[in-house]
Design goal:
- This protein has 3 helices and 39 strands.
- With about 450 residues, the protein is mostly beta strands.
- It folds into 5 domains: about 90 residues, no CATH class; about 40 residues, no CATH class; about 60 residues, Tie2 ligand-binding domain fold, CATH 2.170.300; about 70 residues, no CATH class; about 70 residues, no CATH class.
């Protein structure tokens, strides 16, 4: 009865297979080798519906047998001498798991470099892995792998030993793996191909700490304990963090950040004002220097061979007590010189150009605006020094106060001469050019 049920199930399975796009039976070793909805019975994938029919028939046979004997009527054991459906042939050893079974011919089509009737052999040039030595990277499957020798060393320049049809690698220099292709734990494969210690092997001196150079894939002391330090030696620091927002740069000296401050600020952290500056509303403002910002006259004095001398220079700036800046009066502005912002003025005696008592650098508000002169020069234009031999001086280079030179406030700002009271300009024109020689002559 049970035998009949099993045969019926197999025939029913055959019908199901023929009805589902004529798919062929596939061989199996365990159920996981079969498609979903199939079970592995006698090395073949059988639809589970057919298996259920078989189980039902077995249950019915068991209930109908009063003595509970579940053996076949002919006394054979369950599963032995199982007959396959007509037209279905099994393959030897289910092709050993390395081939596909042709159920019409009962022959195996081997894959993965396997050969033989049941695919348990290897093609020429290949051998079966030993149980204790994985060669293809899959320790769960014994496959046919290519024969190897040490003639072309497959061990990545490590020691190679011949073992039958394959080789055994003896890894060194912290390499690991079947072919010494990896690195031991605690080591990184550098882009140079060497296995170098990771941060568990590298010791760094504070403030440096170990980090990974991802370009080279190496552990280096290129990181810093303090997140605000930087550079390979952690000698650079973040000025925006350490320098009170007023640092141009920051360097670490003796593990202490020191700032190069912006103009007007001082101290290792730029929290103080530099000389010539004062703190106003949290910012350092420039102090007014009486030698750089004054109006209208700065007087200098000295002596020459024991003779007291006095000189002066003129400027038109007023100190702003709130900002610390030198504010220019209307019609005056600050020029530039080789010394920087401001003009270089020479405080001379009346013998202009002969004796200089003091040199003032960076004097502000000392230039007259030719296009928009101050009130005292609205009608004449800005007053300027006379060229030697013209207007002032009766031909003398240094002048005698007989006349003054001005530049017109409009047009090309031509330079011209105005004689003081009691003097008259010689020559035909008051304007200066390179041929002008007119000077202011006394009327007496």
């Amino acid at each position: 009865m049970k035998k009949f049920a099993l045969i019926f199930a197999l025939i029913f399975c055959s019908v199901l297979v023929s009805c589902s796009d004529d798919e062929e039976y596939s061989s199996c070793v365990v159920k996981d080798d079969c498609m979903p909805g199939y079970s592995c019975i006698n090395s073949y994938c059988v639809p589970q519906s057919a298996q259920s029919d078989t189980d039902s028939a077995d249950d019915a046979d068991a209930q109908g047998n009063s003595d509970g004997n579940s053996s076949f009527e002919d006394g054979s054991d369950d599963g032995e001498n199982t007959e396959l459906p007509d037209g279905v042939q099994g393959c030897p050893n289910a092709c050993s798991g390395f081939g596909d079974c042709n159920f019409e011919t009962g022959e195996c089509t081997c894959t993965q470099n396997h050969a033989g009737d049941d695919c348990s052999e290897c093609i020429e040039g290949y051998h079966l892995e030993s149980e204790d030595y994985d060669e293809d990277g899959d320790p769960n499957v014994r496959s046919c792998v290519i024969n190897l020798t040490c003639d072309t060393n497959p061990c990545n320049n490590n020691t190679c030993q011949v073992q039958g049809q394959t080789v055994k690698c003896i890894c060194s220099n912290h390499t690991a793996g079947t072919w010494c292709e990896n690195c031991e734990d605690g080591y990184l494969k550098s882009t140079s191909g060497e296995c170098k210690g990771d941060c568990s092997k590298v010791t760094c001196t504070p403030p440096q700490k170990c980090g990974i150079d991802f370009v080279k894939n190496e552990a280096t002391c290129n990181a810093c304990d303090n997140d605000h330090y930087s550079g390979e030696d952690c000698k650079s620091c973040d000025p925006s963090y350490f320098c009170n927002g007023h640092g141009k740069s920051c360097l670490v000296e003796n593990n202490t950040p020191k700032c190069e401050c912006e103009t007007g600020y001082s101290g290792s952290d730029c929290k103080m004002c530099a000389d010539g500056y004062f703190m106003s509303n949290g910012s350092c403002k420039k102090n007014c220097d009486p030698k750089k910002c004054f109006s209208p006259i700065y007087t200098c004095s000295g002596e020459f061979y024991g003779v007291p001398l006095t000189g002066y220079v003129e400027a038109h700036g007023t100190c702003n007590s709130v900002t610390g800046e030198c504010d220019c009066e209307q019609g005056w502005y600050t020029g530039t010189s080789d010394a920087g912002v401001g003009d270089t003025l020479y405080c001379n005696t009346i013998l202009t150009g002969i004796i200089t008592l003091e040199t003032l650098n960076n004097v502000e508000c000392s230039k007259c605006d030719l296009d928009n002169p101050p009130a005292e020069y609205k009608s004449t234009g800005c007053k300027v020094a006379c060229p030697g031999g013209f207007c002032d001086g009766s031909g003398s280079y240094f002048g005698d106060g007989s006349g003054n030179c001005y530049k017109e406030a409009s047009g090309s700002h031509r330079l011209y001469c105005i004689c003081v009271s009691g003097y008259t300009l010689s020559g035909s024109s008051k304007y200066y050019d390179e041929n002008s020689t007119g000077t202011c002559q006394s009327n007496e």
